[in-house]
Amino acid sequence: MTRPGTEQRMAPLIPFDAVVHYFEEFEHTAWRLETQRSYAVDRAGERWERWRAGAAFGYEPDVPWHALVRKAAEAGKRFERVRLIETPETVLAACQTRDLAWHFAIPTAEFSASQPSPR
User: Fold this and answer.
1) At the N or C end, where does the chain have fewer CB atoms within 10 A?
2) How much is the pLDDT for 119?
3) Beta strands 29-34; 78-83: pairing state
4) Does some domain include residue 34?
5) Are 80 and 52 in contact (CB under 8 A)?
6) How many structural domains compose the chain?
7) What are the percentages of helix, strand and coil residues in the chain, rounded to 5?
């Protein structure tokens, strides 16, 4: 797969079975670091076509990932993300964004509303 708009090859995906133990064993917060503007998508797959047609992808309680997240949330654990911005308008904006996300751990929805993704 390649990133949309690039010819770079993506690194091979690490099988979920190789990392699932991290999500089962963490103590209070697990977070994902997003460092790219976009990620590779299987544009030839059936789910992509369903998404393009407007299909909803909701919560499926029997999916192993959903069951794992539900169990962790019931235990008071949290899943979050940290997203790097590639092109902040100013250095000051980049520093403020970093401070908001890192020091205050604001909720994802609030962060997204204050720092929309470049398109």
Assistant:
1) C
2) 47
3) parallel
4) no
5) no
6) 2
7) 40, 10, 50
